[in-house]
Each structure stands twice: as C-alpha cells, then as structure tokens.
Amino acid sequence: METALMWVLGGLNFAGELVLWAGAGRAVWRLTQPHVPNLALFLGILASIGLVVFWAFLLAPKADNRLPVIPRILIIAALNLLVGFILYRTGDTVLGLILMIPLTIIMAVGQYVPHD
Asked: Which of 13, 23, 59, 97 has the fewest CB atoms within 10 Å around its CB?
C-alpha cells in the first residue's frame, strides 16, 4: 500500500543520494586541490562515480545483492557523516551540516520505505 508520505520520503531519500554522491566528489576535490590541483577535478569525479557504482551494487533498491536494512543504514549513515565532516572541515560548512544532520536522518528512515 503506497501513501503520499511514502512517495515523499522516497523522493527525499533519492535527493539525498544525489547530494551524497555530489558531496563525495566535492569532498575529494577539496581535499586534493591544494596538493594535486591538476588532478583534483578528475579525482573528485572518480570518487563520485565510484560511490555510485558501490551504491548500485549494494545499496540501491533494485540491487541484486542488496544489503539487509541494518547494515545498509549503518553504511549510509557513515558515508553521510564522513562526507559531511570532510566538507565541514574544508570550508563547506552549510553542505557539510546538511549532509551530517538532516540527510543522515532522512536517508536512514527512507530505507524503511518499501520498494517494488
């Protein structure tokens, strides 16, 4: 049975995934920019792509080998907190705080939304 709340939570969860993937690329770019400026953009894009591939195999709703709920929530929370903390410490305070607090909660709760 689908309700409007399930649709909203699913949409927020997907938006959170997009923000996390982009945030991971930005975090890697911000970390590598001072040390290897010529490679920073490439490494940021590579980090985002790597996270998307990892997500597709283990965390996505239609993944063949999707992890059980509790490990999935722990991994998602850890990724949000790690990326958010890196962004916060490297100067992206607003994006870092958004990833660390509301998106971690929304994405954890969103794992309970049933998917077909």
From this structure: 97
